[in-house]
Q: What sequence folds into this?
């Protein structure tokens, strides 16, 4: 495991039912269950390609895709934020088509009272385990750099971690593009 600050708790995040109120927006988006992107015991799980920002908790709600780019979302503390930023093969460079997701996430993070977000990078299974772990960390670091330099978030609020090829979204196709991603966790 490669990390910028602390070890990773690889268990799924959960919140007590009394605190599980889901996301709220200025428009009060309806919640709809979706895959939470958190690996289950077999290492599977994930978010379908093309999904927008999803906030996952014990029963993961989805933000209405019709909210628009200026919607403000409040994230309850202690949940997983399932925004998947995709990457090209063997690359840690941010692709132009991923920037709108990061811009929306930036607005959410700026308006959030959460003090610490973990940015978790992953790779597909092509390449050695050591190489993939380093590449996944570089992907997380690149997203962190973007959120600090372009978005203006404090670097103290962002922790970058690389988990390599662990927790493939598509274990039946270990080299699939959807396995090359960065995800986010709201920690405190």
A:
């Amino acid at each position: 495991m490669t990390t910028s600050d602390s070890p990773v708790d690889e268990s799924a995040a959960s919140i007590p039912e009394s605190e599980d109120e889901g996301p709220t927006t200025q428009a009060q988006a309806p919640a709809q269950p979706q895959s939470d992107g958190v690996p289950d015991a077999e290492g599977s799980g994930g978010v379908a390609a093309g999904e927008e920002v999803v906030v996952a908790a014990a029963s993961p709600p989805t933000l209405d895709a019709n909210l628009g780019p200026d919607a403000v979302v409040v994230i309850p503390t202690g949940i997983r934020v399932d925004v998947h930023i995709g990457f090209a093969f063997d690359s840690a460079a941010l692709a132009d088509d991923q920037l709108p997701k990061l811009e929306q996430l930036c607005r959410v993070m700026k308006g959030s009272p959460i003090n610490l977000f973990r940015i978790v990078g992953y790779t597909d299974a092509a390449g050695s385990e050591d190489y993939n772990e380093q590449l996944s960390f570089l992907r997380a670091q690149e997203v962190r750099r973007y959120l600090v330099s372009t978005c203006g978030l404090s670097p103290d609020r962002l922790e970058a971690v690389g988990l390599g090829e662990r927790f493939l979204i598509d274990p039946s196709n270990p080299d699939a593009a959807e396995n090359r991603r960065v995800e986010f966790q709201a920690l405190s």
About this structure: The first helix runs from residue 99 to 110. DSSP finds two helices and eight strands in the chain. The two ends are 21 Å apart (CA to CA).
